[in-house]
Amino acid sequence: MRDRLPVILSLPRPSPPPPPPYFTVYGAAGVLRELRRSCGVSSRQQGAPPASFARAPRACPACSSCDPPAARAGGVFEVEFRKGGTFWCRKFANDAKWEQQDAVVRVDWGKYGKYELAMQPDGSLSGGVLGKPEDWRKAVFVRAFTPTEELLSGSAWMLHYENGVPFRVEFHADGHFHSADYAGHHLWKLDGNKVAVDWGKYGQYDLEVDPNSRQAAGSLRGNPASWRKLQYVEPLPAYIFKANSCGHSH
Predict the structure, then answer these.
(1) CA atoms of 110 and 165, how far apart (whole Å)
(2) Cβ–Cβ under 8 Å, residues 116 and 135
(3) Residues 6+ apart with CB under 8 A from 223
(4) Residue 81 and residue 98 in contact, taking contact as beta carbons nearer than 8 Å
(5) Which residues contact 228 (CB under 8 A, 6 or more apart)?
(6) Strand runs (DSSP E) across 2-74, as ranges?
(7) CA distance 116 to 218
(8) Alpha-helix residue ranges (DSSP H) falling in the chain
(9) How big is the CA angle at 178 (ends 174 and 179), to the nearest 5 degrees?
(10) Cα–Cα distance between 244 and 173 in angstroms, integer?
């Protein structure tokens, strides 16, 4: 019952509509404060935060493992309540979990803190930092996952190509495309059932995913004869630590 947020059977009356697992979160400045504590950046070092969470990615001045948010009260960003109790946010990536007990959802966001949110009659979530309700958070439904998103985001596949031996590739939830055989800083982007892969010096690829058969097919962009096929292997964790990563999601 707890591994998928829409499954809610014991809420107070009137029961809110079951919200799918894609939310926008509005909050106070707690995320910024927690990140500053975790990486040792003071408010004086960082300067006054800009007027919203929207910003160009930039490196943390204190370390290479985080990309600090430009946050303030009233900031907004998207989070995901995934199957198996995985809580995921591209902007503030961390190994995080969520669980539901009756009408209360609890989030353990690792270095970003712990949160407790209550289901509201309109299907939204409202609460704050655990033990510190004045540092509030509100979550408003955005949309449900598509079957292709649910399959592809955080997954491993075998890639087949003409005149070659199949090898493993991975679609990480932070937007990075990874292959141990052809390493580098590579990206993927999904539009409907079509996925575009920017493989750097290895080329640009366009494939169409069939979530029912768990396969994908396409080719090198502009060259249909140079075909590629993907066969699903297994799911991957949403958060994958990368020692030499670029420090942000895409």
Answers:
(1) 40
(2) no
(3) none
(4) yes
(5) 159, 160, 161, 205, 207, 217, 218, 219, 220
(6) 22-27
(7) 44
(8) 30-39, 43-46, 147-152
(9) 170
(10) 17
Four-residue CA torsion sign, 70, 95, 242, 83: negative
- Per residue in 104-156, pLDDT (tens digit) is 999 999 999 999 999 999 889 999 999 998 889 999 888 889 999 999 999 99
Question: Facing residues of 6 across strands?
Answer: none
Res 173 pLDDT > 50: yes
Neighbours of 191 (CB within 10 A): 9
Provide the token pair at 55.
């910003």
How many CB atoms are located within 10 Å of the residue 50 CB? 13
Give the predicted TM-score (pTM) of the model.
0.70
Distances (CA, A) of 10 to 13, 19, 103: 9, 14, 7
